Amino acid sequence: MLPDPVEATDLNIYEPAELPWSLVRKHFEAGIGLPETPAFLGTVGPDGRPHSTGIGPVETQGFIYFTSGPGTRKSKNLAANPACTLSFRFPESDLIFEGTATRVVDHAELDRVTAVFAAGGWPATRDGEAVTAPYSAQSAGPAPWYLYRFEPDTAVALGLTDPHGATRWRFR
């Protein structure tokens, strides 16, 4: 389960309509990791240019995890600057996180998270300090892949169904 925010700011320009974090978290937990849920990682390269790519994330124990090959642009960008965004489109809301992604090398954490991926249908396993599987997305590059743990600083959601609204949350 994602952490509870420490602060909320109503961003609705039409009338006060703060989205409840509990509702947005419910949308997130129901949709994360599903093939029909678009999820994108935004990074910044050493030259300051933005980069966005699709990812297949999972959530466990309050963190969002994703994989990336060592030679990919997203991994190189994260090595230089761990600040990034994660963006999701759920049927009820758009949700954008800002935070940091850290490469996971702890074997116990790798084993725990690869088990979550495997339970969701992707047969991932730990291979040393990385992840391997018979297949992955083309954008991940060839195996093995690094595992990253994302920790949110802020989130913004836009309601696409009742109660609509727009809210920003701060987590730290």
Protein traits:
two-stranded antiparallel sheet, 172 residues, alpha+beta, 40% strand, 19% helix
Would you summarize the structure shown here?
The chain has three helices and eleven strands.
SSE order and pairing:
Layout (H helix, E strand, L loop, with lengths): L6 E4 L10 H11 L7 E6 L5 E5 L3 E3 L2 E6 L4 H8 L2 E7 L3 E12 L2 H13 L5 E3 L2 E3 L13 E14 L6 E5 L2
Antiparallel strand pairs: 1-11, 2-3, 2-6, 4-5, 5-10, 6-7, 7-10, 8-9, 10-11
| Average pLDDT score | 94
Distance between the amino and carboxyl termini = 16 Å
Would you list the SSEs in sequence order as H and E? Answer: EHEEEEHEEHEEEE
State which percent range the strand residues make up.
35-45%
Cα gyration radius (Å): 16 Å
Largest sheet: 9 strands, antiparallel
Fraction of helical residues: 10-25%
Spans of at least 5 consecutive residues with low confidence: none
Structural class: alpha+beta
Number of strands: 11
Overall geometry: globular
Count of runs of 4 or more consecutive helical residues: 3
